[in-house]
Amino acid sequence: MFKKTSLQDWESVVQKQLKTENIYEILSKENLEGITVKPYYDSVAKPLNNLPKVEESTHLVSPYHESSEENIFAFLLNDNVENLEGKVIFVNNKDLAEHISLEDTNRYFSLVDVFSEDQKGGLNQQLVKELLAKDFEKNICINVSLHQNAGATIVQQLAIALAKTIELTEIFGLEILNKIIFKVAVGGNYFFEIAKIRALKLLFNQFSKEFELNEIPYIFAETSLRNKSKNDAENNLIRSTLELSAAMIGGADAVFSNDYQFEKSDSVSEEISFKQQIVLAYESIINVFEDAGNGSYYIENLTQQFAEKSWQMFLQIENDGGYCELLKNGSIQKQIFEQAVKEQNWVEEGKIKIIGVNLYPKLEKTKSAAEMYSPGEIKAVRLAEMFE
Predict the structure, then answer these.
(1) Which residues of 334-368 are buried (b: 16+ CB within 10 A; e: fewer)?
(2) What beta strand segments (E) does the chain contain?
(3) What's the rounded Cα separation, in Å, for the pair 218 and 54?
(4) DSSP 3-state of 3
(5) Hey, what's the torsion of the CAs at 202, 163, 336, 126, to 10 degrees?
């Protein structure tokens, strides 16, 4: 029998090794989210129930190629393709959404964003009506992938997702909730991103319960562009593999890998990018679990912190006039700008390490953060642009 070791015994050993009384100050790690991360977890205060998916297995989504039609089940379409049968189709183009030929054996989902992200602050109500008239399973996309790629924190992304949701429900009623699909981009902070997907489920369900409903969000997750480098495609591939893994473990209903060679994309690099999903799904089988992160004290704790902070920010957005109104007065743009510049400064200082960019870099700094960002615009910016 092993002798039971108390927490105090472990702390004493660590104190001696680190030569300090205050081990938690040394072991604590600052992060841009303002989330408390402990050096270890032995419990969680309020264990969560399983956070379910809509789909039984996460869909592995590929760009459409005629050569892959026979072997791939889910496609991202920008152009109309006729005679597809038994497929899951994610419509990624407004014009295509208007004119696509529907087949009875296919399932259709719209990834067309109905919000403008500039100071017009618009919700395109006519587009919403047109999309709702389509025979799609999920007609209305709430896109927060742009915000992740623009440098928004996870808390900001989740709060914006809820703020967009309430804008839609106030105009089109609660019936629209089961027509929504969330499009998110998954970044490189592995456990944080797992918790982000789970927190979105928790928040959307809580939001629906405010109206005596019990809705589960449909989540389409794609790999981020923010941490990718045009000069370092091989590391892009590694990063996007981890991002896909985080999305599947977090419980996304569909995943899509952006081309790791985004400036030199071709059919081969697109195929390799898609096959990352195949390897993860068929070697690790992580796409079939309903909530693989459940029971991890660390992930549970992160999930609840993100949910609580995001809900409070959402309430603040509503108190200040709502998402569209804050876009019109530039508040949302400014908040994301300030966060993005802070993150960029952390990259410049080496507090965030990106191999091949600011760790073992190939190039010197070529741009300042001020040159890369605008306080009046939400735009996708890659962190590596500073060194390219």
Answers:
(1) ebbbebbbebbebbbeeebebebbbeebeeeeeee
(2) 59-63, 74-77, 88-91, 107-110, 140-143, 180-186, 218-223, 254-256
(3) 6
(4) coil
(5) 130
Phi, psi values for residue 328, rounded to 5°:
-65, -40
Identify which of 299, 311, 31 has the alpha carbon closest to the alpha carbon of residue 161.
311
Give, to the nearest 10 degrees, the angle between helix 297-319 and helix 154-172.
50
Q: Provide the residue-wise pLDDT of the chain in tens; the chain has 388 residues.
A: 667 778 788 888 888 898 888 888 888 888 999 999 988 888 888 899 999 999 999 999 999 988 888 899 999 999 999 889 999 999 999 999 999 989 999 999 999 999 998 888 889 999 999 999 999 999 999 999 999 999 999 999 999 999 999 999 999 999 999 999 999 999 999 999 999 999 999 999 999 999 999 999 999 999 999 999 988 888 999 999 999 999 999 999 999 999 999 888 888 899 999 999 999 998 888 899 889 999 999 999 999 999 999 999 999 999 999 999 999 999 999 999 999 999 999 999 989 988 878 887 766 889 999 999 999 999 999 999 999 8
Q: What is the pTM of this model?
A: 0.94
Residue 123 φ then ψ, to 5°: -105, 115
Would you state the structure tokens that stand for residue 118, as one six-digit string? 């500039």
Spatial separation of the C-alpha atoms in residues 25 and 32, rounded to whole Å: 17
